[in-house]
Amino acid sequence: MAEVVVVGAGVGGLACAARLAAGGHRVTVLERSTVVGGKLGRREVVRPEGTYRFDTGPSLLTLPQVFDELFGAIGGAPPAMVPLNPVVRHVFPDGAVLDSCADPVEFTDRIAAALGPDAAADWQRLWRQAGRAWDASWRDVLRRPVDSPAALAGLAWRLGDLTAVAPGMTLRGLGRRRLRDPRLRMLLDRYATYTGADPRRAPAALAAVPYAELSFGGWYLPGGLATLADALLERFVALGVSVRTGEAVTRIETAGGRVSGVRVGGAVLPADVVVSNVDALTLYRDLLPTPRRLAGLADRSLAGFVLLLGVEGRTPGLAHHTVFFPRDYDAEFDAVFGGRPAPDPTVFVTVADDPAVRPEGHEAWFVLVNTPRHGVGGGAVDWNRPGLASAYADRVLSVLAARGVDVRDRVRFREVLTPAWLEGTAGAPGGAIYGTAGGLLRPPNRGPVRGLFLVGGSTHPGGGLPMVALSAGIVAGQIGPA
């Protein structure tokens, strides 16, 4: 039995702690915030018309089999999951609307109806390639350690797999090669943002992301996705995990080339194993200074600007998730990765048809826009600058109005969450949504000293709820049972 300390109680840290405790280890989780969940946050707002409840992080769960396996390993059942159809409603600049779904045949028919038979035929060809990329990724990458680019290149992929992942090609290049309709290219480009990346630089292998979403579906948890953290916390009681909130780790201590504990306040908590669920940038900059591991972590990932809205009445034309695309997607990427809020951004709107999260006769809106990270200097924006957040919130609502959804006279409550807010509440450097590494290849799960492991969205295999849950499985496997 090892003494394990998990630093950070995001979903990756919670899942890893539960797996290790189920394997017989003695586990303590330290979380600097007063609540667990990390970026899987929630907000409750009480108003005269009733109570609004918002997920302030992920609003869509994919790959439900990952969570079935997780709860099978730690005991208990995962929270109830409700399938979404459409998974996402896409509203294009010309007014065309395309609803995605988890049935490939039905989705192809929807493409034909919305965009024409040539677009549908192109998507079918891309879909076959994306399926091969997914199979190779699932078999060889997502559930095993990948410690370096050389290790990734050295995997025993077959020739057909290499053709599918198209090494050296970008996701944008793949779209241009396979898809004639610019709207389908726009849809494909969006999936690069799932990893915090620019589609013009992101690898073509990310075509596996839409394949996974549209093969296994998108799911909602009644009451909000933050109930996933609640379910994990419930398992901690039975497994004997100690959770200490409001305790910030300031340093990881080492001796003889291996971890010896963590410093909390003025004391050291001994540990045989330390699992870091903080961002890799924070780990290697502050907790265990390792300059050579900082390269490429700071400036490569998207941040998010969020509006939480209480809206009176019901809004026609919206699905659970609706994406409103801009006329010029490249102009948006140029702005965001150039350190400027985009004047005409893609707008993501989530409106759950769930009585548990809204007053009767009202809607709880989560509105997300991709933005530059918070900070000072190249590629960043100081989101604490007076007046900036409010002015940009007004701009986002004006963009929605121009795209046919004007709710400005029905907003009864508005709260703005900037990248600076996410940095302060979840410890995400710059407010990076998917971890500072961005893209496909993340820092390895095994740290530079013995007994140190990394879990969560900033490490392999990447950001998003299923990926951080998979990282927990990888780390637990590396540590092994007691």
UniProtKB/TrEMBL annotation:
Record key words, sorted: Carotenoid biosynthesis, Oxidoreductase
InterPro entries: Amino_oxidase (IPR002937), Carotenoid/retinoid_OxRdtase (IPR014105), FAD/NAD-bd_sf (IPR036188)
Pathway: Carotenoid biosynthesis; staphyloxanthin biosynthesis; staphyloxanthin from farnesyl diphosphate: step 3/5
Names of required cofactors: FAD
Residues annotated as domain Amine oxidase: 12-479
Pfam families: Amino_oxidase
Family, as annotated: Belongs to the carotenoid/retinoid oxidoreductase family. CrtP subfamily.
Protein's name in the database: 4,4'-diaponeurosporene oxygenase
